[in-house]
Amino acid sequence: MGYRGREKLLDKSLGSIYKLVILASKRALELAEGQPRLVSDEISAKPSTVALHEIEQGKIEARVIKTKE
Fold first, then answer.
1. Residue 11 has pLDDT above 60, yes or no
2. How many CB atoms sit inside 10 A of residue 60's CB?
3. Helices 47-56 and 17-32 meet at what angle, rounded to 10?
4. Residue 11: in which H helix or E strand, if any?
5. For a surface tag, which of 9, 16, 55, 62 has the fewest beta carbons within 10 Å of its beta carbon?
């Protein structure tokens, strides 16, 4: 698994590096707890790497939750 360009990942996470980090860390935690992978990666790939790969391929995406006023 090679280098992932930050620009490609930022487009998938609403344009914020902070939202990207939160999205990837939550997904990596799910993977570490046993959730199935949505992409076919090496078995030895770390959960954080798999999470970034899933975001890049569009399998995981961030969404805005609107609150009631």
1. yes
2. 20
3. 120
4. helix 6-12
5. 16
Domain boundaries, the chain: 6-56
Q: Which tokens go with 40?
A: 């076919």
Query: What pLDDT sits at residue 9?
Result: 75
8-state DSSP, 63:
-
Q: Count of alpha carbons within 13 Å of 31, Cβ hemisphere only?
A: 23
**pTM, 2 dp:** 0.77
pLDDT tens digits, 19-56: 888 999 999 999 999 999 998 878 888 999 899 888 88
Residues 6+ away with beta carbon under 8 Å from 13: 19, 20, 23, 55, 61, 62
Q: Is pLDDT of 2 > 60?
A: no
Helix and strand totals (H; E) in the chain: 3, 0
